[in-house]
Records
---
Amino acid sequence: MHVDLTPAELMIGREPRVSSIFHHRPEEPGSGGKRVVANPFGFAEWFNAVTPRSASFEKAFEAQSLAMDSLLEKAIDTEDLPEQIPGT
């Protein structure tokens, strides 16, 4: 598993959250990189508008969320670590 962190520069004068993100693929020879316009909130709105709701998915997601709540409750029950021993 990995996380891609992408620097973004807010584009002043555009809709809220519209940004310019930087894209570069070093494995592509001659690729100097480029800027790409991104609007994650606009994408989410579009996706929700064009994706039909699924009752079975919602039910499965709710069940998964309830199971995760149970795991989180167990994870919160923690014990402090002992003091670190100098020199180890």
---
Amino acid sequence: MSASHDRKFFDTFMLILGILVGIAIALIVVARIIAANTSVARRQDDPVYARQVESRIMPVAQDAVAGQDNAALAAPAAQPTTATDLPGESVFNQACVACHGAGVAGAPKFGDKAAWAPRIAQGKDTLYQHALHGFQGKSGFMPPKGGRADFTDQSVKNGVDYMVAAGQ
């Protein structure tokens, strides 16, 4: 009796397992049919997606051949960038905090009134000059534009004004 009982259990187990595998395969097929009619078809028609795919599969380099038109191989012209004037707090957080946040290389700490007083006494024009063109003092070195050559002069001045306001 034990052998027939085991056989019945095994047959029932295999039947249930087969049904579950069949359901899983059916769900996969239905999902692929739905995807083919919706997102996949729309993505292939999308011009942005097509450009992204093209940029990913483009060759890394191209060869110029003597005696042939190689104009298509010329590097694209650089797009002019328009620098914007940033507010003082933004300039401070992007560049100045590296030294003035902790007093690195003799830089007066942000908000330290005693350290800023003699510098403020020299006048804003001097502070602007040192910030824009760099300064080598007794206590340390100030790189031009705080090491951020991409900042506009007005952005650097805004950063100086922000630190001076906190140091007064």
---
Amino acid sequence: MARKKTTQASADYEVGRGKPPRSSQFKPGQSGNPGGRRKGSRNFRTIVLEVLDSEIELTEGGRTRRVPMIEALMLRQVQEGLRGHLRAIDSLIDRYERHASQEVEQADELPEEDLALLKQAMGSSRRNRGVRQGIAPGGSLDLTDGEDLDHD
């Protein structure tokens, strides 16, 4: 038969699942992973963003200017494409198509069907509210509350 381990725990603390013996618990101020990541170390994403945001001097038409690294890389890729490098052209067109298709489409007006459903829902909820307040369904209840739902 297996023998149970006895611990020297105080009567007010029960050892069990999620409750290790006090002697093996972390002491105040003690790290759970002392050999872990150093303070101030940066991850790959942070390093890439810092490098691409850093500025570089660029000479265009005899004039020197400072531009972000990402802009300089894009200008270089455009130059390579203009020289006839098909991979640069393909990459630029692909990027253009991906970013041009992400434009946010804003609908200025609701379609007629949606507008009719909205009016119907607003009207029925306000009529029901009017009945609860003692106004008869055929009585004078302003269904628009001063708001014009038509976008004419």
---
Amino acid sequence: MLVQRETDFQELGALRYPVIVKPNDEGSSKGIRDGPIADDPAGARRRCEHLLRCYGCPALVEEYIAGTEITVGLLGNTPQERILGVMEVAPVNRDPRFVYSLEAKRDWRHCVSYHVPPLLDAGTVAQIEAAATRAFRLLGCRDFARMDFRLDRSGSLFFLECNALPGLDPANSDMVFLSKNVLTYQQLVQGILTEAAVRQAAPGR
């Protein structure tokens, strides 16, 4: 649910807990620091109040899905978009309530292990790739994007979010890490620019 004002707090009691609380309008894990999970409505309210005060945007409150963190990179434009890679983000400490927080991203060498391809069977990977492509098309993404998922302990797949403008820092960005087996960094950046140029030159534009 989206919490935009104080009157929204009364609806927090109807949610299934635990939940994760994060800014609705930010990216690159901004606002997702240590401790973003709330176990009850009171904790969710405190977290929402903090985010509303610090970031001045609505807070997004979602059921926390414990399980395997997966991210998928795509390049191109519908119907020719293609999967660049599927990556599993695994916590080094095996924390069952792992969150890919700002702290984890800043200190990724000590906090997480990146598995490309993920440590999953081929059928599950194919399911994830199909879901990522479907999300890319339904959301109207252009040129490139990164889709985040969680796979729970029962094997159910949950779509978390779309990163329509994912980071491209060569030293610490997921999009760069997951595509390294198929593209150099220069090829990745050039590919994005080429896709945008082709799209802009399409008939009718």
